[in-house]
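Problem: given the chain below (229 residues), write out its structure.
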Amino acid sequence: MPHPRIGVRMNYMRLGSHHQFHVRDKYIDAVFAAGALPCPLPCTDDKAVLRQYLEPLGAVIVIGGLDYPPELYGEALHPKTELAHERRVKGDFSLLETALELEKPLLGICAGMQLLNVFFGGALIQHIPELDTHYGEKQHPVEILGGRWLPRIYGEGRITVNSNHHQAADPNRIGAGLKVVAQAEDGMVEALEHDSEQMVLGIQWHPERMADSALGGAVFRFLVKLAKT
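Solution.
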């Protein structure tokens, strides 16, 4: 039986002397390990092209990256905000819109979760005042608060995750149709789900590089199951 194909959003940024598309090997290896074929997706906002990319796919992953422009949610630029390339930003919005239209299961990781909140009209904390818990691959517990998808992946209660982010979804400005389904002890939003029929899940941690590979791989294995249906 052919393996399902999962789209993995590529980043776009200047590396060395040239602008480049790239994706870290950890994302690709995590999809392989879960039993699917990773299909890197270059950044384009051409929806006709995106439909051709996405129609054969079973699911889509939006990876981490730099920061989305705060003008998208009505705020001025914070000195610590590091803007993603315009090509990545426009491409991500078109990718998400197309994935929703095609009803593809979608997983947003780190900045990918933040994209969900901004896309649906929410806002971000541009720079977390206290980074000790959340930056530098720190390990910390998160409480699963329910939802349709997250308990099916991780069960109920608490799990320990890794963290490497300086921005977060603003808990006071959560996007329309989104629900906070996991939270850190300091109140930081750790996961969001949308009320659409297909899985639209954002997680703030990086499962592709968790020390506990079984726990990290759980979300990819679940996504592969959905991609097979």
